Automatic annotation (TrEMBL):
It comes from Desulfomonile tiedjei (strain ATCC 49306 / DSM 6799 / DCB-1). Signal peptide: none annotated. Transmembrane segments: none annotated. Binds 1 FMN per subunit. Its cofactor is FMN; Mg(2+). This is Coenzyme A biosynthesis bifunctional protein CoaBC.
Length: 226
């Protein structure tokens, strides 16, 4: 009943959402990952679908189920996420990159399980490609690109430079040092930064509310691309 009262104001949009962590394997039984639960990305999927958008989710392992009726592509590594995102990108009218992509992966994947007898191993890491920056370099003018940033220090400066360097229309800036913000938490405290230079500071609120406010901004940005 509630959803019948909601405006289907995202009808016609095809929103590509990424969520959750990636897993970077070391050997057949071990991997490196991060604390992302995927809650923010899932909230965006849920609200976007209710508001009439077609939704494609590309995600690592999630701690909750995605809503029924959306297309869900499961990946594990950052490299797999990159391949699938680049494949889906041309069909998306907007991309919201909430995933916590691992910045580094083990430089080599051991074919056999690493054994504990012998010397203590050293893990050598290599950089993963920045998927969001790649989208920023190739996006069409009608595609709206929304990125996230998690920062613990020099929050505003870092956020502003990510917005610019990755050629985003909008950045959702998250100070993860604050209680009630960020990883594995039901609430968030964010600031929206826009290409135009405009900025909006939000109070602490549920991730679903943050999702709705992000989607409201996508609609506002859409009116400027038309
Ligand atoms: N991101 C990405 N590909 C990566 C790393 C990050 O697409 N290899 C995206 C995330 O999905 C997020 C945004 O970039 O939308 C910002 O992620 P964040 O970790 O805050 O920034 P980084 O650019 O990775 O910089 P750093 O971690 O050094 O602060
Ligand atoms: Ca990062």
């Amino acid at each position: 009943i509630y959803s019948l009262l909601m405006p289907r104001d995202l009808q016609g949009e095809h929103i590509l959402v990424t969520a959750g962590p990636t897993e970077e394997p070391l050997d057949p039984v071990r991997f490196i990952t991060n604390r992302s639960s995927g809650k923010m990305g899932l909230a965006i999927c849920k609200r976007a679908q209710i508001r009439g958008a077609e939704v494609t989710l590309i995600s690592g392992p999630l701690k909750a189920e995605p809503p029924n009726g959306i297309r869900h592509i499961r990946i594990r590594t950052a490299l797999e996420m990159r391949d699938r995102v680049l494949e889906e990108f041309p069909r998306a009218s907007a991309v919201i990159k909430a995933a916590a992509v691992a910045d580094f992966r083990p430089a080599s994947l051991e074919r056999d399980k690493i054994k504990k007898d012998g010397m203590e191993p050293t893990i050598v890491l290599t950089k993963n490609p920045d998927i969001l920056a790649e989208l920023g370099r190739t996006k069409r003018p009608d595609q709206i690109l929304v990125g996230f940033a998690a920062e613990t220090r020099d929050v505003l400066e870092n956020g502003r430079s990510k917005l610019k360097n990755k050629n985003l229309d909008m950045l959702v800036l998250n100070d993860v040092s604050k209680p009630g913000a960020g990883f594995d938490c039901d609430t968030n405290i964010v600031r929206f930064l826009f290409r135009s230079g405009e900025e909006e500071q939000m109070d602490i609120m549920s991730k679903e509310k943050v999702a709705d406010l992000i989607l409201d901004r996508v609609i506002r940005l859409r009116s400027k691309t038309e």
